[in-house]
Write a structure and sequence with these properties.
Helices cover 74% and strands 0% of the residues. It is mainly alpha-helical. Helix 1 runs antiparallel to helix 2, helix 8 packs antiparallel against helix 9 and helix 10 runs antiparallel to helix 11.
Length: 303
């Protein structure tokens, strides 16, 4: 007899496959976006079931939340949907590509089941010198800090790319009274919870990306309610916030190289403080970047 947990996991897996396939092949874009958001929420639950709360928080905030809002905003600006055309050859090629990707993923995952893995032991052995007590934060901001730095660079490139592609003439709809009332309550809560996630990241699931996404959600909510002015890339404080994460990251890396420790090799006695500085800067940078992606400079482009 199947246990309740196993039955839940099987149901979750089946729903993920159904939502993924339906979102890709549905006739209307709006329906596809709604299914994509639902897929993201179920994927966040899946990460939590797999014991990866950091990824669950990031998926819920960025994958399902802000990305869904960004897709809906893009859909609102493209006008009437074109008639759907899905030639059989395109569907067949998509299916073949999906099978090939699945085979590659299986080949990458299967070796993890064969014998002990050395990486968890290495992380645990050097955790005391990382400056934090949470292994995920230690990997992202110490042992493999270059990966996180490049993620911030990718986010900056996304902001610059979307800024070039945004069409003119977009006007924000009149805010609902209920939205304005709730935003005054939810926005301060997003700041408090984001600060808690930032503080929690050094010793438990949380960190800059989750905190930055939550801050961005609060900013988007206030802007949609008409309680914030237009966010413009041309304003120097906004540019400073977007660039802050990369600048602080590179500054610490250059200082470490100049002092002899090496690029992004922190002195053990300063590791905790430097990681905290990077996380604070990255949180503000991520919040500003995501906010610009979703609700940035619409009125300016319409002039």
């Amino acid at each position: 007899m199947l246990s309740l947990e196993l039955l839940f996991d099987i149901t979750l897996s089946v729903l993920l496959l159904i939502l993924a396939g339906t979102a890709l092949h549905v006739r209307h874009l709006y329906t596809g976006i709604v299914l994509f958001v639902a897929f993201g929420l179920l994927l966040a639950i899946t990460w939590a079931r797999l014991g990866a709360p950091d990824l669950a928080l990031a998926e819920a905030a960025i994958g399902a939340g802000l990305t869904g809002v960004l897709l809906l905003a893009a859909l609102a600006r493209i006008g009437p949907e074109p008639p759907p055309r899905r030639p059989p050859a395109r569907a067949l090629s998509a299916g073949v590509l999906g099978v090939l990707v699945l085979i590659l993923l299986i080949r990458a995952v299967l070796p993890l089941e064969q014998g002990p893995q050395p990486l968890p032991g290495l992380v645990s052995a050097h955790l005391d010198t990382s400056g934090v007590s949470h292994p995920v934060t230690a990997v992202l901001l110490n042992f493999r800090a270059w990966d996180t730095l490049l993620e911030l660079v990718v986010l900056l490139l996304a902001v610059l790319g979307v800024r070039q592609l945004q069409p003119a003439g977009y006007k924000q709809a009149h805010a609902w009274t209920l939205l304005r009332a709730w935003s005054r309550i939810l926005a301060p809560l997003s700041v408090i919870i984001a600060g808690y996630l930032l503080w929690r990241g050094s010793h438990a699931p949380g960190g800059a990306f989750q905190a930055g996404a939550l801050l961005a959600a609060g900013i988007v909510l206030l802007r949609l309610a008409g309680l914030l002015p237009v966010l413009r890339w041309d304003d120097w404080p906004m540019r400073a916030l977007v660039l802050m994460g990369i600048v602080v990251f590179l500054g610490i890396a250059a200082a470490g190289a100049w002092l002899g420790s090496g690029w992004l090799n922190y002195p053990p006695q300063w590791s905790g403080n430097l990681i905290l500085l990077i996380e604070v800067a990255a949180t503000l940078s991520i919040a500003a970047s995501l906010s610009l992606l979703v609700i940035g400079e619409r009125e300016e482009l319409g002039t």
